[in-house]
Amino acid sequence: MTAPLRLGTRGSALAMAQSGHVAEALTAATGRPVELVEVVTAGDRSTAPVHRLGVGVFVSALRDALTAREIDFAVHSYKDLPTAGAPGLHIAAVPLRQDPRDALIARDGRTLAELPPGARVGTGALRRIAQLHALGLQLEVTPIRGNIDTRLGRVLGPDADLDAVVLARAGLARIGRTDAITETLDPMLMLPAPAQGALAVECRIDDHDLVELLGVLDHAPSRAAVVAERALLATLEAGCSAPVAAYGELAEGDAGEEIYLRGAVISPDGTRDLRLSRTGTPADAAEIGKALAAELLELGADSILGQEGHAGPGTQQFGSTE
Ligand SMILES: NCc1[nH]cc(CCC(=O)O)c1CC(=O)O
C-alpha cells in the first residue's frame, strides 16, 4: 500500500469540484490513491474586498502549504495565478482545458442583445466591465463579488437585484450549473481572460517522481494555448484583474498545427478598445504571446493599463473570489 498523495484544496464548491476531478483522473491513470486536504486561505476567512486583502490571498496559502510539505500537490484555476512562478514549485500538468468562454445568466432567459438599455449587469472583473461597456448597449455595469452561487443569486435568487451576471462557463460547468446560462458569449464580443477554463497542477520542483507522475494529466495543446495567453499578460506586466483578454485557439493550418492568438486591452469605460491577433506554431507559444503584447504596447496599451488595473512589474492584483 502506498500512502495517498495529499492534494491541497480550498473548500469552495468550485475548488472542491476541480480538485476532486483531478484526483479521480490521477487515480484512474496511475492507480495512486489521492486524499483531499482542505487548506483555509485568508481570502476565505475575510469578507473584505479582494483588492484590500493584498496580493494573491487565494493562491499563496496553497503554495505555502506546498513549500511546507503539508500537501504534495495543488490544483489552481490557472487564470488566478500570478504571472511570476513560485520559487521551488513547478506546474507539472495543464489538463485538457474546458470551454474558455464567458457566459451570461440573465432574467427571463434573455441574451445580451435582448437586455434593455439601463439593464443592470453584475461582474467583478475589469476585463468584463470594459468589454460590456465597449458594446455600447447602455448597460449599467455593477461590480459584484462572492462565490459563483452568490453571484447567481443576484439574478436568480429570491432577493435578485440584477438583470444579469457574467461568469466563466468553465466554473459553472464544474459546479454543475450550466443550466442557468442564457447565452454563451462569443469571444468576438467578450474575449476570455488569459488561461480561463484551464487548471494548473502544481507540486514541488524537487519532487521528481511526482512531477513525472502528474505529467500524465498534461494536455499539450491546452498548455500551449495557455502559455501563449499568459506570455501576453506577463509582457504587458498586467495582473489577473487587469482589463486584458487573450484567447489562443489551436487549429490545423497549412504548415501543420497552429495557434491563433487573439489579445485585447480595453479601457474600463470601453472607449478605448485595442484588439489584435497573431498566428504561429505551438512550439513558439510564448514568443507569439510576447510579440502580440509588443504590438499592443506599440498601439498604446500601456496608457490604457496605466489608467487602471496595471499592477506594475513584479506585482500582481487579484480580482478573483473563487
Ligand atoms: N475569477 C474567479 C474565477 N476563477 C476561476 C473561475 C472559474 C473559471 C476558470 O477556471 O477559468 C472563476 C469564476 C469566474 O470567473 O466566473
UniProtKB/TrEMBL annotation:
The keyword Transferase applies. It is an enzyme of class 2 (transferase). Residues 225-297 form the Porphobilinogen deaminase C-terminal domain. Gene3D superfamilies: Periplasmic binding protein-like II (3.40.190.10), Porphobilinogen deaminase, C-terminal domain (3.30.160.40). It holds the Pfam family Porphobil_deam. Its EC number is 2.5.1.61. Keywords: Porphyrin biosynthesis, Transferase. It catalyses: 4 porphobilinogen + H2O = hydroxymethylbilane + 4 NH4(+). The keyword Transferase applies. Residues 5-210 form the Porphobilinogen deaminase N-terminal domain. Its cofactor is dipyrromethane. One of its GO terms (molecular function) is hydroxymethylbilane synthase activity. Belongs to the HMBS family. Tetrapolymerization of the monopyrrole PBG into the hydroxymethylbilane pre-uroporphyrinogen in several discrete steps. PANTHER family: PORPHOBILINOGEN DEAMINASE. Monomer. This is Porphobilinogen deaminase. The gene is hemC.
